[in-house]
Design a protein that fits this description.
The protein is of the alpha/beta class. The protein contains 15 helices and 13 strands. Strands 8, 9, 10, 11, 12 and 13 form a 6-stranded mixed β-sheet that branches. Strands 4-6-7 form a 3-stranded parallel β-sheet, sandwiched between helices. Strands 1-5 form a two-stranded parallel sheet. α6 runs antiparallel to α7 and α7 packs parallel to α13. It starts with a strand and ends in an 11-residue tail after the last helix. The N terminus is likely disordered.
Length: 362
């Protein structure tokens, strides 16, 4: 866990000074007066945490939390874990560009900035995703240090619906949370049923500018490809990193999959004319595709709820005869629910340019 602590006590002193005035950005007096008594909330680690009865200001612990909570309650976010990408501009309302960057609790590109967190007025900090082994101890320590409740909500592909229901209860957003939860449950159930009724296609998911990394079977980032295909990338120690395991082109040639999925910003554009890659069945037959990414990689980098888009996309890509849905309508519905964006047909076609409908695709 990486946490910026050097400025903590100075920041705290500044926030408690100014003639006893409340820190800028905290809930105003009227909201505080209307709030019911504190209540206990049990998070996914089993910790019983005292939280405000009414929560209007929420901080996120990292990118996974940012994606999940932006769908549920964007107006309650007091900051973001990392800046939105340039690609996100066409999908997300510009009013969220000005949110302060809080950093990340675990790993990533930036450490959690306690000074920014304290000045944000956050009533709770929410961590979403897979619980680290030390999650309970980490969150207890930060909670004691800052005086702000820290909570973990576990969310995996099969449990994201339940995660939204827990968040809805915590944040007083039960109706909106149930809509998102029902969506996740439905897409997961349909995808699972599809995968159980097809002959799984031999597939590799390749990442990196050189194309020498794969998302290995049984890794945290391989949930979709493992579920929906025969992931040939079996290695001794699957990497927990989104970049995957380095294996090299020779090993990829040994596996020789029917289909190759390339991560965005990978070697996809070069393989069609590269003699070394032309020896692979998937390249020769044109069955290689780039994973859509907008505003996040649909297969899970980071591995958050945008993976439901990946499930729908991969179903249509690998098993079109079994995918009994209109992919554009499905993607449009997702963008409306999770990004609050009215996706146009042109935007959809741009997302699919190197995938379904790409030039020369079978």
């Amino acid at each position: 866990m990486k946490v910026r602590v050097l400025t903590f006590f100075l920041a705290l002193a500044m926030l408690l000074s100014a003639c006893g005035k409340a820190p800028e950005g905290t809930a105003d007096t009227a909201v505080q007066a209307e709030s019911p008594a504190l209540r206990l909330f049990t998070d996914s680690t089993g910790r019983s945490v005292e939280v405000p009865g009414t929560i209007e200001k929420v901080a996120v612990s990292g990118p996974l939390s940012q994606i999940v909570l932006f769908a549920l309650c964007p107006e309650k976010l007091v900051g973001i874990a990392e800046p939105w990408s340039k690609e996100a501009e066409q999908y997300l309302d510009t009013e969220y560009d000005a949110l302060p960057v809080l950093g990340q609790l675990y790993g990533g590109k930036g450490e959690l900035n306690l000074e920014t967190l304290l000045s944000s007025g956050a009533q709770v900090v929410i961590d979403v995703g897979e619980a680290k082994d030390t999650a309970a101890e980490d969150l207890d320590a930060l909670q004691a240090q800052t005086g702000i409740p820290f909570l973990h909500i576990t969310a995996t592909l099969p449990t994201s619906g339940e995660a939204y229901r827990m968040l809805g209860d915590l944040l007083g957003e039960e109706e909106a949370a149930e809509t998102l939860a029902a969506y996740c449950d439905d897409v997961y159930a349909r995808t699972k049923a599809l995968a159980e009724n097809v002959a799984l296609v031999d597939t590799l998911y390749i990442t990196g500018a050189e194309g020498h990394h794969v998302i290995a079977r049984d890794s945290y980032h391989s949930e979709i490809i493992d579920m929906m295909s025969n992931n040939l990338a079996v290695v001794e120690v699957p990497s927990a990193k989104g970049s995957g395991n380095e294996v090299g082109l020779e090993q990829i040639m040994v596996w020789d999959p029917e289909v190759i999925l390339f991560g965005d910003q990978s070697i996809y554009d070069a393989v069609g004319t590269d003699p070394a890659w032309q020896s692979l069945t998937a390249i020769r037959t044109g069955r290689y595709y780039e994973v859509p990414a907008g505003p996040y990689n649909w297969m899970g980098f980071p591995p958050s709820v945008q993976r439901y888009l990946g499930m729908l996309w991969l179903g249509e890509l690998l098993y079109p005869e079994m995918a009994e849905y209109d992919l554009y309508e499905e993607v449009k519905a997702y963008y409306d629910l999770f990004y609050h964006c009215d996706l146009t047909r042109a935007q959809y076609q741009d997302l699919m340019a190197k995938s379904i409908g790409k030039a020369g695709a079978p």
